[in-house]
Amino acid sequence: MSPARLGEADLHAYVDRRLNAACRAALESWLATHPDDAERVAAYRLLGERWRAAYAPVLEEPIPAVLLHALQGKQPARRSIVRAAVAVAAGALIALAVSLYLAPAPASDIVHRAAIAHAVYATEVQHPVEARAHGELLDWLSERLHMKVQAPDLHRAGFAFLGGRLLPGEAAAAALLMYEGQNGQRVTLYWGPEFRQARDTGLVYAPGERGMRVYYWLDDECGYAVASAELSQRELLAVALIAHEQLEK
Amino acid sequence: MPGDCLPDVQAQEHIAALIPHLRRYARALAASGAAPDELVRATLERAAQDLRLAHAQSDLRVWLFSLLHETYVASAAGREAEGAVAPAGGEPGGAAFERAIATLPPLQREIFLLVTLEDMSYEQVAKTLDIPIGTVMSRLSRAREKLRLVLTNEARLRQVK
Predict the structure, then answer these.
(1) Run of H or E including B17
(2) Is residue B88 part of a domain?
(3) Under an 8 A CB cutoff, do B148 and A66 touch?
(4) Per-domain residue ranges of chain A
């Protein structure tokens, strides 16, 4: 095929790898005899690589709590730009503090406790949970925690309820519910009534030690923490959103 | 169907999965300018109000980015940038490419970044920004050529210094 006059749109489609094989071949034979255009293609591709490399790390950053709250419609209806900016700055600080493990005491405690409980029991093959029927177990845990303990249905995220157990907290009883995915990966939901606080926190992400990831939220009845050592932040977030939705109904 | 909150949660999950992408785009778009997360927050707030609409979208990503685009255009940063010349000289710490993208008109910036960072097809970009595909192509071409020249010049200047 003799090279046709090059269209500018084709050149960009080539840069973006969106041409079919025939057009690609035609374009490449054009470029072979037109070094100026070939140089432009190379420069445009380099631009793309530079921008992608420069902003790739953003995808790995923990999602600030204020953004999750906005998605859950938890923000006050309208705020001034200044207050919004302060909230964003505060969100960034909180995210930083949490990532440095310096979150306010109650929050970091629940993250710590949930991570330890997960590490100890999720790896247990024989007896990860109490040998009791689910209904009976939840009744018993409710009695000991002095609140209604329920097991959110996480099937939509691919996790089945295995059971749970009673745990010692700092000063009161706590509970751990365990879920298992199809490939045996485990997620735990920690219930710590002693971490309750008047103001609902919304979902907060807290990367723990040794690859452990935790999402927690505190309300006026209990502190909850979803933990996993195997799930990506995104997968764990899907689980946390479902649990949060069902427990905060 | 009203009263059924399952679709809402599902839509929330799908939107949440795209938050890192919205943040990346906003960060690159605003460069050293306005708070990028504030753009994302306002976008998510709008999405949250219309979760049922989210469920009906054939392309959730295009819908979310179009919300971000509208927020961007409506924001002070967008208006300011409309007539915009680059912030003079850029921040001392600002990278060369941040200064370079600041020289582009907002629409060219958006087209370049949607194609480059999000790897959107030209049709998706046209839908996101609600403009004809011909405009996408002509502005993409201008944006790339401008960035190429700005960065080449900057490299030359550095050599001279």
Answers:
(1) helix B6-30
(2) yes
(3) no
(4) 8-57, 103-247
CATH code of residue B126? 1.20.140.160
Q: Is B153 on the interface with A (CB under 8 A)?
A: no
Question: What mean pLDDT do residues A148-158 have?
Answer: 93
- One DSSP character per residue, B94-150 reads --HHHHHHHTS-HHHHHHHHHHHTS---HHHHHHHHT--HHHHHHHHHHHHHHHHHH
- How confident is residue A82, by pLDDT bands cut at 50, 70 and 90? low
For residue A248, the model assigns a pLDDT of: 81
Q: How far is A231 from chain B (nearest CA, A)?
A: 14
pLDDT tier, B90 (very low <50, low <70, confident <90, very high otherwise): very low
Give me the residues paired with residue B141 across strands.
none
Q: Among residues B53, B21, B56, which one has the least CA distance to residue B40?
A: B21
Range of the domain at B152: 6-160
Q: Taking a C-beta distance cutoff of 8 angstroms, is the pair A192, A167 a contact?
A: no
Q: Does the distance separating the beta carbons of B117 and A51 come in below 8 Å? A: yes
Mutate to test the interface with A, among B21, B24, B37 (most CBs of A within 10 A): B37
Tell me the C-alpha distance between A200 and A86, whole Å: 19
Within-domain flag for B134: yes
Q: How many independent structural domains does chain B possess?
A: 1
* B40/A67 CB distance under 8 A: yes
Residues A1, A11: Cα–Cα separation, whole Å = 17
Q: Report the residue from B21, B49, B144 with minimal CB separation from A44.
A: B144
| B1 domain-assigned | no
Task: With CB atoms and an 8 Å threshold, state whether A9 touches B35.
Answer: no
* Residue A216 near residue A208 (C-beta atoms within 8 A): no
Q: In the predicted model, is pLDDT for residue B101 greater than 60? A: yes
pLDDT, one tens digit per residue, over B135-153 is: 999 999 999 999 999 888 8
Q: How confident is the model at residue A81 (pLDDT cuts 50, 70, 90)?
A: low
- Of A2-6, A37-41, B52-56, the least confident: A2-6
Contacts of B87 (CB under 8 A, 6+ apart): B32, B33, B99, B102
For residue A84, the chain B residues in CB contact (below 8 A) are 38, 41
